Amino acid sequence: MASRISSVYFTVRITGNWQWTHSGETGRSDPAVPAREHLRRQAAEILGRYSVLDLAAAHDAVNSCLAQCGCPTPGLEASGTAELSVTASDRALAEEHARRQQAADLEHGEELHRLAHLQQVLADPDLRRVWWMAQFPDRFNDLEALAQALKGLPAPQAAQDDNLRGDIRRFTDDLVTTLHTPQQRDVFVQALVQTLRALGHHDLATAAALHPRPHAPGSTPA
Fold first, then answer.
1. Tell me, what's the pLDDT at 162?
2. 11 and 85 in contact (C-beta within 8 Å)?
3. Neighbour tally for 94: CB within 10 Å
4. d(CA 29, CA 32)
5. I need a labelling partner for 186 at 20 to 30 A (CA). Which of 52, 63, 121, 164 fits?
6. Could you write out the three-class secondary structure of the chain?
7. Cα distance between the two ends of the chain
8. Burial of 130 (0-12, 13-18, 19+ CB in 10 A)
9. What was the pLDDT predicted at 157?
10. Which residues pair with 76 in a beta bridge?
């Protein structure tokens, strides 16, 4: 029976049991044919989800299914057990497929990393200018057209930081941007110190309290 990889197979032996649920059904045609077909179909459906490299998991799953296989036709109950094995050639094929899949995943990850880095460069006007000058030193006049085409391009973290850490980072950046006077900064640091102490981060609270603060023009440093 085919595994998750259609060209790689499990070797399967099914021992089945079947019976009519009502005594009046016993005179009907031989129940073995629909029962066997039902057991094979159920086993094939389960095994198609597994790699032959996961033999134990496939064995448990298929036997759990066959133990309560149900009714292939009205009035007929069927159940069974399966013994699984894998030939050396099928195992070798599965291992080769796994190696190729891993290589493809690594290549895909590297490509995503490269594209994220390029997006980071293109989203930043200063980095974009330097990158363009390095890549196309004889086409500097075309930079403006590129800038227009990339207008609104977000930095990678803007799209990927959809979590609590990203929310806190963006909120903190916005908050710090709005602090213009030494008094505002003092209030912010005091609130930060109290929050860190409440959370049990005493070392961070001490570091924040001791962090040097800017002074207003003309004032005497403390």
1. 55
2. yes
3. 21
4. 9
5. 164
6. CECCCCCCECEEEEEEEEEECCHHHCCCCCCHHHHHHHHHHHHHHHHCCCCHHHHHHHHHHHHHHHHCCEEEECCEEEEEEEEEECCHHHHHHHHHHHHHHHHHHHHHHHHHHHHHHHHHHHHCHHHHHHHHHHHCCCCHHHHHHHHHHCCCCCCHHHHHCCCHHHHHHHHHHHHHHCCCCHHHHHHHHHHHHHHHHHCCCHHHHHHHHHCCCCCCCCCCCC
7. 81
8. exposed
9. 67
10. 20, 73
Strands 76-85 and 70-73: antiparallel
User: What pLDDT sits at residue 197?
Assistant: 81
Angle, helices 88-123 vs 125-135, to 10°: value is 110
CA angle at 53 for the pair 48 and 59, rounded to the nearest 5°: 60
For position 88, what pLDDT does the model report?
A: 96
Retrieve residue 156's tokens: 């990678």
Structural tokens at position 131: 């990158």
**Could you tell me the mean pLDDT of each successive run of 10 residues in the chain, 222 residues long?**
94 90 64 88 93 94 86 82 95 94 92 91 89 89 87 71 67 73 79 80 70 53 44
Half-sphere exposure of 85 (CA within 13 A, CB side): 5
35 by Cβ neighbours in 10 Å (0-12 / 13-18 / 19+) ranks as buried
Q: Would the pTM count as exceeding 0.90?
A: no
- Distance of alpha carbon 195 from the chain centroid: 34
Instruction: Give the type of residue at 123.
Output: A
